Amino acid sequence: MSYLKVSGTKVVDGGGKEVVLRGAGLGGWMNMENFISGYPGCEFQIRAALAEVVGPIKSEFFFDKFLEYFFQEEDAKFFKSLGLNCIRLPFNYRHFEDDLNPRVLKEGGFKHLDRVIDLCAQHGIYTILDLHAAAGGQNTDWHCDAGTHIANFWLHKDFQDRTIWLWKELAKHYANNKWIAGYNPLNEPTDSTHTAVIKFYDQVYDAIRSIDTEHVIFFDGNTFASDFSHFGDMHKKWQNTAYSIHDYSVYGFPASPEDYISSDEQRQRMKKSYERKREWMDQHGLCVWNGEWGPVYARKQYDGLATDAINERRYKVLKDQLAIYNQDRLSWSIWLYKDIGFQGMVYVSQETSYMVLLKDFLAKKHRLAVDAWGADTTQVQHIYQPLIDHITKEIPQENQNLYPFPVWKLSHRVGRLSRSILVTEYLVKEWAEHFRGKSEDELDEIAKSFKFENCLHRDGLNKILMDNAAVVGF
Predict the structure, then answer these.
(1) DSSP E strands: which ranges in 331-430?
(2) pTM for this entry
(3) Which of 66, 94, 219, 341 is the most exposed place for a label (fewest CB within 10 A)?
(4) Measuring CA to CA, which residue among 164, 227, 151, 245 is closest to residue 199?
């Protein structure tokens, strides 16, 4: 077996044969996320809250079991059965380093990452290591686990230096593993200068290459993997490197401006958005990887009789995006493999201990629209609209579009700060209190909710992915 390599616009094996990587992200696992795993706010907040309620020993036990059950042999078998060949593994720096003890490697961080990488390899599945949450927070959103909308990673050199140190440790550990397709050093950066990110990429590239000259490096574009306009000629220095876009379509979300009917105009808008993101790579003949994409789905407990019709429209979005990607033989990783029912290829059953325990709380969280991802603000918009109107009235138009505009419009910013940060803070303890008094056996049973055997399959999504794999081939 050989390392995968970048050759021009393609990923190839040791014999120069093209390998099209198609798979999914294991989001919500080693970097937990609120809408995926069913809690409010950020992972560091709920870990601290649970430790306070059940004690640090039981809390650590629960989260370790969660990590164990989230992806096992049955998951790998199922994933491979769909004809998919690559899993992106998002992880949080906190597994490897503590903020109060920086640059001291926590060897325990490799326990589950090694296990899943090896499990995937046994089933012929490549993996891509994705630093989804870096020290300080590399972007303005919840999924970098910083608890703020300020991307402090770009404001403090030490955060960047610690991340470079971590990637050197990871490269030492994984340099000889040929089933790892490559490294994704930083998920969705939001650098308002548009130049600090390029400087950091150059430094982390040199750091990794000082140890590991073989693995592909996948660099995300700036502003949530959408913008390469300031990258210039840096590609000439970076060898064996691919460039990652994240190609979510507005048509796949509750905030879609109109129902998706796959009209010529809608498909053209979708294609133009995709082409705009990859424009720099096409100009220079570079390799593109779509590290995240995919719709979210309606749920009967929230969307009622409209659920099936909504999801059929979302499947149309999915198919039309795949048709665009197939024309370019694009490598991609759909978001995501497993969750509690919003976007996953498989999702935790409503009958499991976890979902029964948190049923009313999850309904409240949905009603309050505190999760930013795919939020349906119908029931609370009347509360926040006066604030949006107030800012719009009092702030001159030229000062309203704060970075990361246009990805974040004014209304998005108000929602992130007021609902997803402020209101969420008051829900963290409420979530944790559901676990009070639970024994280790009960906590183990709750964690088992995330086992493959306790999950349902999103058959419409999985059939589309499987059929597409069969048609296009690898």
Answers:
(1) 331-334, 338-339, 346-348
(2) 0.97
(3) 94
(4) 164
